[in-house]
Amino acid sequence: MKILVYTTLNAEQKNQLKAGITGNAELFFKNDLTEENLFLKLAEAEIVLGNINVSHLSKPHSNLKFWQLDSAGFDQYQNISLNIPVANMGTFYAQRCAESIVAGVVGFYRGLHSLVRLQSEKKWVGSKIRPFLKGLTDKNVVILGAGAIALAAKKMLTGFGCNITLTARKNPNATLHSLEELFSILPETDVVINTLPGSAENYVNEEFINVMKQGSIYANVGRGNTTDENALINALEKGKIAGAILDVTAIEPLPIESKLWDMEQVILTQHSAGGDKDETSGKVKHFIKNVNKFLNGEQPEDLVDLKRGY
C-alpha cells in the first residue's frame, strides 16, 4: 500500500507514523520529494494523508482509495469530485475547539475580557465591576450544527446547567431542522454558538441577528464566511448583541482596519481554538487509527462529503 503524506512532519513524527501503520505500507513524504516526483507519487498513491494542494487535484487519481485530511475544515475542496472515502479531523479537533468557545462564553459572562484590559492599564475597579457580571447557569443556548464540535460543546455546557438546543438540517443529533423552527426560539436564546461549515455562507445574516434576543451573545467557532460581519458589527454597535466570541473571521488574518479589533465587547481568539502544543503528534495518532481502520476493512472515523462541506 503506497501512502503519500502531505502533512509536514519531523523525524520523530515520521517514525511514529511508520511504526503505527499495520501491514505492508510504503510511505512517501511531500517535503522529501521534488515537485516532479511529488506528482508521480500522487499518481501512484493509494492513500493520502494531509491536505493536497487544490492544483494537484486537476488530474484524475485512479489509484487513490482513501484520503485523510489533516484539518477539520475543507471548503477549498468543494468543487472536487472523488468517488472514495474522505475523512477530516473533526473528532480530533472537537474537544479543543469546544473548550475554547465555551471558555470564551464563560469568560465574557464573568467579565474576564474587561478585567484583562483593566490589568494592562493597571486600573483597579474592584467591586464596581460586580454588578455587570453574569453566570452561565440556566442560560438558553442554541448551537448551530450538530457535529463533533457541537456535541463536545453541548457536553460541557450541560455541566454548567444550560438549556441546550442543537440545530441542523438533517443530522439526527439536532432537535431543530429548519430556519423557521430556529427563528421561533431565537428571541428567548441567551447564547448562539456557531459551528457551521463554510458551505453555510452568510447563514447568520442581518435577518438572523434581528431575530436574536436583545443583549444575547454570539460565538463562532465554525467558519468566518458563515457570518455577515457588517451586520454583526452593526448589531454590536447598537447593543442588539451584548458581545461576540470569534475564533474565525471572514478574512484571516483580520484586517487591521476592522472595527472588531477595538470593540471591548468582542473576544478574538484568532483561529487558535483547535490548537495544542502536541497538535501534530496528535494528528499522527489520528492518522494511524483511521488508516489502520481502512486497511482492516473497517469504516474510518469522520467521513465527510466534500461537496456538501460536512
SSE inventory with pairings:
Elements (H helix, E strand, L loop, with lengths): L1 E4 L5 H10 L5 E4 L5 H10 L2 E3 L16 E3 L17 E2 L2 H20 L2 H9 L19 E5 L3 H12 L3 E5 L11 H7 L5 E4 L11 H6 L4 E5 L8 H10 L2 E6 L19 E3 L10 H17 L15
Parallel strand pairs: 1-2, 1-3, 3-4, 4-5, 6-7, 6-8, 8-9, 9-10, 10-11
Helix pairs in contact: 1-9, 3-5
Describe the structure.
With 310 residues, the protein is α/β, with parallel strands linked by helices. It contains nine helices and eleven strands. A six-stranded parallel beta sheet has the order 7-6-8-9-10-11. Strands 2-1-3-4-5 form a five-stranded parallel beta sheet, with helices on both faces. Helix 1 (11-20) runs parallel beside helix 9 (279-295) and helix 3 runs parallel beside helix 5. The radius of gyration is 22 Å and the shape is elongated.
Summarize the structure.
It is built from 9 helices and 11 strands. The chain is of the alpha/beta class. Strands 7-6-8-9-10-11 form a 6-stranded parallel beta sheet.
Roughly how many Å apart are the termini?
28 Å
H/E series: EHEHEEEHHEHEHEHEHEEH
Residue ranges: pLDDT <50 for 5 or more in a row?
none
**Strand order, sheet with most strands:** 7-6-8-9-10-11
Keywords:
310 residues; alpha/beta; six-stranded parallel sheet; five-stranded parallel sheet
